[in-house]
């Protein structure tokens, strides 16, 4: 059993542009267009915006200038064509309970406690508990007892389901019942896919001072990665440090 205090965020997928398909589209419409961004997600958003107004080759020549106008005008639908895939590891079940409330534009695949043995589970400790030796001791003892109870329940339940001939089903039946004693602090892993507009909503909802600390920390990590990955789509956010040392994100273009 290990205590984890820092989530890990990985960008695992980004888009590619089918340049031949784009060129056929332009040829069939009798227009020409080029852009100075090499980021596929940004290129697709610009193409979507220009299609709306048939503005290929007209006005706002640079990609940065064009997307700045998109953000200023809150034309957020074109950002839905940019998709980014992340994996979050070292996060709690409390975190994912909040995360999956973000529905529009999101897709999730989370570690299954029915199939994965939590006998080797780790636990996420909030900083405000970890920073106090007395509270840390209470937390550590609590999760240890829950973990030990889980292991004992799995062992007992598998004996109770001994007449089930399928060993995989037998393990699943035991684990799905035993997990009821595991706390929200149990570590989990989740694969998350969302479009750029949905990621912006997530950042604005979760990277502010009113958000829960763990999900805010993840939101800031996601933002930093996306600002490097697609600055035209996320570069308008400013990361600021609060008096308590934590960070928040702000933008002048909310609810795009």
Summarize, please.
The protein is of the alpha+beta class and 256 residues long. The chain has helices at residues 19-29, 40-53, 63-72, 93-99, 127-130, 133-160, 167-178, 196-206, 213-229, 231-234, and strands at 3-4, 8-13, 83-92, 106-110, 123-124, 187-195, 238-241, 247-250. Helices cover 46% and strands 16% of the residues.
* Helical residue percent band: 40-55%
For the CA atoms, what is the radius of gyration? 23 Å
Helix segment tally: 10
State mean pLDDT (0 to 100 scale).
96
> Gap between N and C termini, in Å?
43 Å
Uncertain spans: none
The secondary-structure element order is EEHHHEHEEHHHEHHHEE
Largest sheet: 4 strands, antiparallel
Shape verdict? elongated
- Strands ordered across the widest β-sheet: 2-3-6-4
Strand content: 15-25%
Number of strands: 8
Structural class by SSE content? alpha+beta
SSE blueprint and pairings:
Blueprint (H helix, E strand, L loop, with lengths): L2 E2 L3 E6 L5 H11 L10 H14 L9 H10 L10 E10 H7 L6 E5 L12 E2 L2 H4 L2 H28 L6 H12 L8 E9 H11 L6 H17 L1 H4 L3 E4 L5 E4 L6
Parallel strand pairs: 1-5
Antiparallel strand pairs: 2-3, 3-6, 4-6, 7-8
Helix pairs in contact: 2-3, 6-7
Describe this structure in words.
The protein is α+β, with helices and mostly antiparallel strands. Among the domains are: 16-77, no CATH class; 126-183, no CATH class. 46% of the residues lie in helices and 16% in strands. It contains ten helices and eight strands. It has helices at residues 19-29, 40-53, 63-72, 93-99, 127-130, 133-160, 167-178, 196-206, 213-229, 231-234, and strands spanning 3-4, 8-13, 83-92, 106-110, 123-124, 187-195, 238-241, 247-250. A four-stranded antiparallel sheet has the order 2-3-6-4. Helix 2 (40-53) crosses helix 3 (63-72) and helix 6 (133-160) packs antiparallel against helix 7 (167-178). The protein is elongated. The model has no long low-confidence stretch (mean pLDDT 96).
